[in-house]
Amino acid sequence: MDDELQMLRDAVRKFYDTEMEPHEARWQEQGQVDRDFWNRAGEAGILCASVPEEYGGAGGDFRHEAVILEEQHRGRGVSGFANAVHSTICAHYILDYGTEEQKKRWLPRMASGDAVCAIAMTEPGTGSDLQSIKTTALMDGNEYVINGSKTFISNGQHADLVIVVAKTDPSKGGKGISLIVVETENKKGFARGRNLDKIGLKSQDTSELFFDNVRVGPENLLGGEEGQGFKQLMVALPQERLALAVGGAAVMETALEETVRYTTERKVFGKSLLEMQNTRFKLAEAKTIAHVARVFVDNCIERHINGGLDATTASMAKWWVTQMQCDVVDECLQLHGGYGYMTEYPIAQMFADARVQKIYGGSNEIMKELIARSLVAS
């Protein structure tokens, strides 16, 4: 942290407090944030913070994205805004792999909130095994024709741009995968399915998407070269997994703060719950885990900024921090007693929202497999 990042943190916290938290209950009921909220976030400089200014972004780096993400997770009831998908993931696919024309065409609209972006990887029968996707984008004349379906797509209801993972040459397996950007407005053959009803993240739209002979020009092939999609995905996934770890560390710290506050105020047998040894020991454990997670995540951020974060370490951060997030939040909920099970208490929402952390971005079982591949027998 430095003075610039602290100023950003203060500004983002104020924005979330005034522009987001008061609307969260309504957004949870409707299953998505208001569409114009994306434009307000763009005006506040919250979108595409690590995109260069020449493409409409704020010109920062991953530290700025991490501050914005942390403040969202530290707020009360502001979990549904999928800016991490839009800014930290999608924008960087375009920034890192797009042609100059593609960057100038899409990134400024994403930075302003005029275009919301989603990435469509998962299919009804395919999760972490991306090489087995069925969606195709086959050339017909001078256009790609996309057919297939995707599910669990964050920002799916709002998405103006969808980065579709598809096979441009099904005969080549993973080497035949490409990323193609679909501009959804009035796009014939493109359809949004239902907004999926989830355990947590209630105000984040998560959708099914359908592509029925959707035609796009070759200028929408990300990077302009077929067969690069799998490589592009593998290179970009460490940043996505680090972003999940950043959120997990922030949630642990927030859960601990909430629980210390609650156990200080809660009286049992004439004294505060915090004065009881079991409570103190449980919170001592939680504080230690949260501190270790913070040190690990900050080290990963530093390594990432310097270009040294490898896929194995990113996988370690993703699985361990998200697992610890679920464990710590569960212990903190237990210390709230019956009130922890009530949705008006922040810890209840943290508990519901945390569970998916071990699933998306590559399940934790896949993370362990990736880590295991790095082992060398002595």
Summarize the structure.
By secondary structure, the protein is of the alpha+beta class.
Can you characterise this structure?
- It is a single chain.
- With about 375 residues, this protein is α+β, with helices and mostly antiparallel strands.
- The chain has three domains: about 5-115, Butyryl-Coa Dehydrogenase, subunit A, domain 1; about 120-225, Beta Barrel (Butyryl-CoA Dehydrogenase, subunit A, domain 2), CATH 2.40.110; about 230-370, Butyryl-CoA Dehydrogenase, subunit A, domain 3, CATH 1.20.140.10.
- It is built from eleven helices and nine strands.
- The strands form three sheets. Strands 2-3-7-6 form a four-stranded antiparallel beta sheet, with no helix packed on it.
- A hairpin with a 2-residue loop joins β8 (about 265-270) and β9 (about 270).
- α7 (about 230-265) packs parallel to α9 (about 310-335).
- It is globular, with a radius of gyration of 21 Å.
- The two termini are about 40 Å apart.
- The mean pLDDT is about 95.
**Biggest sheet features:** 4 strands, antiparallel
CATH homology superfamily of the largest domain: Butyryl-CoA Dehydrogenase, subunit A, domain 3
Q: For the record, give the distance between the C-alpha atoms at the N and C termini, rounded to a whole number.
A: 40 Å
Write down the secondary-structure element order.
Answer: HHHHHHEEEEEEEHEEHHHH
- According to CATH, what is the class of the largest domain? Mainly Alpha
Overall pLDDT level: 94
Radius of gyration: 21 Å
Number of domains: 3
The dominant shape is: globular
Strand order of the largest sheet: 2-3-7-6
Q: What's the CATH architecture of the largest domain?
A: Up-down Bundle
